[in-house]
Amino acid sequence: VAYIHCEDVFGIVGENFTFPVEIDQKIVELTWKKNKDKVAEWEGQKTYFSPLLNRSVLMENGSLTIFDLNKSDAGAYELHYWDSVKDHYLNFKLVVLDPLPEPKISCNTSGGNLVLNCIADFQGPLSYTWKLTDDPHSYQSQELSIPLENVDPTRKAACVIKFSRTAMSSEISLIQCHP
C-alpha cells in the first residue's frame, strides 16, 4: 500500500526554500517531480533536471532545497521514494509569494491611549512584533496601545513583520504621533 501525504507550503520570491521532508528509514531510491516532470532523482547518485538544474540540492533524507525561488517554481511537487519494501509518496503544493512589503505604521489617539497600527498588504499570514526604544519587551500584536501619560515623544516604535524566514520593519518617532 502506498502512503500518500499532501501539504500546502509557502515560499517567498528570492528566498531559498526547503520542502519539509524528514524521512528516517533507509531510502533506496527517490524521485522529485514537479507537475509530473522529473526535477531531481537519487539512484546511487544525484541527478537534477531543468528547471532546477544548478539551483537546487537534494539531501540524503529526501529534502529538496530550491535556491532563489521565483514565481515559476510554484506548482505541485511529488516526492516518490522506495525504501526496499514499499513505495511512499509525499505531495506538496508550493505557493510562491511576492517579497514582503515594508509595513506602514498609522497612529491615532483613542480613550486616553496612543494606538499604533502596523499594516502590510501581503497574501500570507504574517507575525507582527512591536519594539519600543529602551524597552526590553517586544509585543506580539498588530496593534500597540500606550497610555498617553506614558508616551515619551523622544522614543521610537518599530513594527517588524515576519513570514517564513524573511522579516521587514518600519519605524516611527512617537513625536510624529503625539497630539
From TrEMBL:
Spans traversing the lipid bilayer: none
Record keywords: Glycoprotein, Membrane, Signal
Keyword Signal on entry: yes
GO cellular component, one term: membrane
Superkingdom, taxonomy of origin: Eukaryota
Entry GO MF terms: signaling receptor binding
Compartments where located: Membrane
Main location: membrane
Identification of the protein by name: LFA3 protein
Organism in which the protein naturally occurs: Atrichornis clamosus
